[in-house]
Amino acid sequence: MYKKRKVNKKIFIVVTIVVIIILLSFSLVLNRKYSKVESFFKDIAITTEKIIMYPFTYIKETKEVNQNESYLIQKNVNSSLEKEIAELKKVLDLNRTLTEYSPINATILSRNKSYWFNTITLDKGKKDGIKENMAVITKDGLLGKISKVSNNSSELKLITSDDINFKVSVAVKTNDKDNYAILNGYDKKKGLIRLESLDKEVEVKVGDTVLTSGLGELFPAGIYIGTVEEITTDKYNLSKILYVKTTQDFNNIHYVTILKEKK
């Protein structure tokens, strides 16, 4: 009887994990909003994943730890904590500068390796007042926008996304003049954001600052994006293409700020 219960318990855990993987994979399809059913199961999946995976994570960590490694592990933990504290301080400083918006601080819940530069799951959702298309930033500038929302979580689409339909109107500041372009794409090899639709006659130079323009009313104006690193032209020689270097570390994000417009 005991062995039968033990087997049933293992089967339940395996089935639950498979269901979680299927649900999360299905929800990562680009350009599709959550249905009410998906939103419900998304919240359940995230909560269940934390509960199910905790003992496995704990056991794995316990097996790997020994006395010879303890000092190095503690040193790494302290270093990680210092970095997270510094990041939290930046978030708090950022909150004090946002006067037109009610900043909502969020923590990264998960990140899929297959879509590393596309989307990130955050721990804030509808119950926190989060809505689609809200801008998401850090102290280093624009990260992206909210693309999907469930009750307890939301999906952040990064400006490094390969979604061709995700465009941001930006202003390139040259000699106190705004030159408008469209942010659309990310060159992974160069590690640079791509801007297009800038008239070839417009004078821009390396080092010019790039900010959100506020046009289209999707993002607030004046959010920092980066500086011009490289200038080329399209294959028809009709417009300029700019490559922008940001100060964001897209490989190391823990905390973000979602901009909720004040009523």
Topology:
Blueprint: H1 2-27, H2 36-64, H3 67-97, E1 101-110, E2 119-122, E3 135-138, E4 141-149, E5 154-158, E6 168-174, E7 177-187, E8 192-199, E9 209-212, E10 224-233, E11 239-245, E12 255-261
Antiparallel strand pairs: 1-2, 1-12, 2-5, 3-4, 3-12, 4-5, 6-7, 6-9, 7-8, 8-11, 9-10, 10-11
3D structure, described in words:
- This protein has three helices and twelve strands, in the order H-H-H-E-E-E-E-E-E-E-E-E-E-E-E.
- Residues 56-81 have low confidence and may be disordered.
- Helix 1 (2-27) crosses helix 2.
- The chain is elongated.
- It has helices spanning 2-27, 36-64, 67-97, and strands at residues 101-110, 119-122, 135-138, 141-149, 154-158, 168-174, 177-187, 192-199, 209-212, 224-233, 239-245, 255-261.
- A six-stranded antiparallel β-barrel has the order 1-2-5-4-3-12. Strands 6-7-8-11-10-9 form a six-stranded antiparallel barrel.
- Among the domains are: 2-25 and 33-64, no CATH class; 168-245, Thrombin, subunit H (Beta Barrel), CATH 2.40.10.
- The N and C termini lie far apart (61 Å).
- The longest helix has 31 residues, at 67-97.
- The protein is an alpha+beta fold.
